[in-house]
Inverse folding.
């Protein structure tokens, strides 16, 4: 079962509430229901809807712009719109909104297009693309050295490579072998005869599409956003859009932290329980981030959790001569980095728990 979630947060990112609607309909039909439900339950306010691309339709965005009072939105756009606006964006100058993030602003038809570039994201996406491309080229060279009975076997291997290196495959042009004009259509093979076509060695070639590569390089780490908040500071717009990615990461990090596989619920109550736990995880994530800001602004909440993850609670069992077992519950001592972090956060670890002992299969404190 699929659901759509709307999270209501303050401009600083602190969550207030969330709403869940069925997701077995198109997102574009769900959005209008969301708008009506949120306004009915929480009243009309200067609310900003931050949405991923593909959720709102042009008709919905037009209704949001022309409503009285207008409903403000900030939404990602598909790649195709960036292609249409690329010529207009090219001569514009970059404006720095924060360290490593720059934007270009393009007002058009009552909206503001925000073309954002994140240097960290550029390096990350570029490294991912280079790894994919290197792996695909190595695999294609391996296939060129292999022998196949017919072209169908080659196509299966190429299909496997395409599925494994999907992003890099778009940058490669593969030229398949052409059947000879003199060859007759293959006949069913019998025990006493072998089709001559099956003896032929299919050979293919490939080359890098440099035009597509240049286009991909220009767009790595860059996003095109659109909004009707035409007078708003670009720094605020970028921060609003980052909140959307943080909400998505909250659900992902929950499964990673608990080491859970993807969960596919069938019952409605279990879906609601899973979403509630994820919402609470997001609340803790934002609260920790707010505490870190004045104390250790260079650290993110994710970095803190990773640093403290090695502090674990262990039970050490010691058998005694009279058949009982002495149990010592101990947490591992923090290293210097962890002690410094705990000190900056104003946290103190509790004393080590007292020992316990079992007697005749029962635990005695």
């Amino acid at each position: 079962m699929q659901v759509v979630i709307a999270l209501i947060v303050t401009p600083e990112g602190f969550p207030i509430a969330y709403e869940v609607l069925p997701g077995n309909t198109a997102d574009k039909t769900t959005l209008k229901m969301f708008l009506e439900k949120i306004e009915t339950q929480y009243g009309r306010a200067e609310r900003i809807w931050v949405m991923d691309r593909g959720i709102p339709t042009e008709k919905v965005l037009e209704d949001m712009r022309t409503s009285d009072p207008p409903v403000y939105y900030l939404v990602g756009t598909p790649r195709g719109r960036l292609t249409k606006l690329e010529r207009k964006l090219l001569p514009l100058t970059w404006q720095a909104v924060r360290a490593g993030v720059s934007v270009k602003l393009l007002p058009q038809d009552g909206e503001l297009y925000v073309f954002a570039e994140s240097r960290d994201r550029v390096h990350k996406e570029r490294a991912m693309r280079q790894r994919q491309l290197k792996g695909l080229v190595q695999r294609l060279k391996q296939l060129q050295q292999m022998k196949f009975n017919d072209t169908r076997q080659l196509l299966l291997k190429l299909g496997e490579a395409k599925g494994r290196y999907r992003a890099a495959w778009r940058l490669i042009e593969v030229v398949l072998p052409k059947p000879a004009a003199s060859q007759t259509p293959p006949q069913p093979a019998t025990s006493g005869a072998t089709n001559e076509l099956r003896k032929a060695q299919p050979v293919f070639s490939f080359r890098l599409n440099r035009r597509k590569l240049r286009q991909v390089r220009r767009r790595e780490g860059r996003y095109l956003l659109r909004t009707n908040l035409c007078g708003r500071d670009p720094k605020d717009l970028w921060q609003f859009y980052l909140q959307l990615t943080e909400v998505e990461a909250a659900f992902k990090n929950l499964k990673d932290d608990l080491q859970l596989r993807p969960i596919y619920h069938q019952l409605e109550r279990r879906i609601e329980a899973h979403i509630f736990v994820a919402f609470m995880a997001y609340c803790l994530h934002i609260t920790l981030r707010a505490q870190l800001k004045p104390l250790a602004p260079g650290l993110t909440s994710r970095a803190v959790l990773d640093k403290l993850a090695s502090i674990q609670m262990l039970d050490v069992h010691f058998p005694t001569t009279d058949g009982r077992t002495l149990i010592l519950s101990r947490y591992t001592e923090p290293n210097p980095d962890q002690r410094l972090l705990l000190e900056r956060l104003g946290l103190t670890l509790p004393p080590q728990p007292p020992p316990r002992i079992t007697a005749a299969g029962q635990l005695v404190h």
Summary: The longest helix spans residues 268-295. The two ends are 47 Å apart (CA to CA). The longest strand covers residues 15-22.
